Amino acid sequence: MSLQPVIEMRNVTKAYRGVPAVKNVNFSLLKGEIHALLGENGAGKSTLTKIMAGVVDASEGEMLHNGAAVRFASPFEALQNGIAMVFQETSLVPSMTVAQNIYLGEEKFLNRLRGIYIAAQQFLQSLNFTVDPTATVATLGAAKRQMVEIARAVHHKADVIIFDEPTATLTPEEKRHFFALMKRLKSSGVSIIFITHALEEALAHADRISILRDGELVESGASADFDRDKVVRAMVGRSLTGEIYNRRRTAADLRKPGRQILSVRDVSMGNMVRNNSFSIFEKQITGIFGLVGSGRTETFKIISGIYKRDFLRGGEVVFDDKPVRYNVPVHAVQDGIIYVTEDRKLEGFFETMSIAENFYSGALAAGLTKAKFVSYAEMQEISAQWSKRLDVKAINDNARVVELSGGNQQKVVIGKGLAQKPKLVIFDEP
Predict the structure, then answer these.
(1) Are 337 and 424 in contact (CB under 8 A)?
(2) 3-class DSSP state for residue 277?
(3) For the segment 259-280, what is each residue's pLDDT rounded down to a tens digit?
(4) Residue pLDDT, tens place only, 282-306
């Protein structure tokens, strides 16, 4: 690992409507290192890396790439200079195939699709990614789309790759392959920035760790100098070891289950969901586990009216003591079921609407508003309540959701659901 920084940020500040997302950050990425960037939701991690990748422009400060001052006007310009970013929300073209997305921008005048598919198949196999190169991206789940994003960044042979939460949707086996890939890239001289909320992953795989809190860089050093408690203390400003992580559950913590609120019997949908049966009780948190592609998401999208189960032999769903078969999600919402999606960008919020409008849309969908027509005063009241409860960081509730950090966008998605006062909340990879 070279001591020459390949990227250096000097006193970088980025403000949205006068509110800084990052403030006077000094950061360096060395050649051939894996550098973990940690922090709570809204700490400024994604904003800082988006400046590096040309997605947003810094308000103040400068960035050096291989010793030369740069200011990229677009992600394409950054990519031409060897900096690639794998985004938390994928930036693929949904209507194109996996192979077409990987080779997008490199097409020859005459293309043979068969040749592109064969080349993509071999390339994906070299990365240990089990993705069909002929599949349309729109048909892929979140984990498979993330694999395609990673493959595209590696294919461009960038000397800097930024991974924003790359393992969030991967299975343990896929994670193992991903970290092996990171080490191969490192050995070939590629520098990697790795944003994650899984602290153990950062401690195990990073050479250096930098920690942001409220937009400021508070700690940076060799990963060997950190342990979990030191990382958490830097992230939140105090130690949580005794408060949360080592706290033993007592009898008082274990609520007795209430009545059965949801009964699912032999629910089926084509080949994706087959004869699933389970029960959910009031006053309990039920964990649902399974590998990617096992039908977890599809099962709960059936329950919440997003997907339809088989008409014949599709099984039975009983909610709140009555059989239900929802044709559209609004009927489930009105009965008290909400589904918080794993794909917030496509399904979770209205990005050009304000925080207040998103929260209010949840209450409108559930029919909980007092006014017959849209009420600005009621919207502000609902928004103020949920912004405070979820600690949404923004200049005010009129800020557009697209302007928020990824963590704060997720808070809006959750708040929009909870504003519907549900009886059953389904969190899909929250």
Answers:
(1) yes
(2) strand
(3) 899 999 999 998 888 898 999 9
(4) 988 899 888 777 888 899 999 999 9
The answer to whether the beta carbons of residues 385 and 308 sit under 8 Å apart is: no
Q: How far apart are alpha carbons 43 and 216 in whole angstroms? A: 8
Tokens of 158: 């960038």
E strands present in 310-360: 316-319, 322-323, 337-340
Widest CA span in the chain: 69
> How much is the CA Rg of the chain, to the nearest whole Å?
23
Dist. CA 243–CA 197, nearest whole Å: 19
Going by their DSSP bridges, the two strands 424-427 and 337-340 should be labelled as: parallel
- Write the pLDDT tens digit of every residue in 73-127: 898 899 889 998 887 666 788 889 999 888 887 766 666 778 888 888 998 888 8
Picking from 82, 77, 47, the residue whose alpha carbon sits closest to that of residue 61 is 47
What's the pLDDT score for residue 62? 93
CA quadruple 29, 23, 84, 219: dihedral, nearest 10: 40
Contact 41, 2 (CB under 8 A): no
Strand partners, 154: none
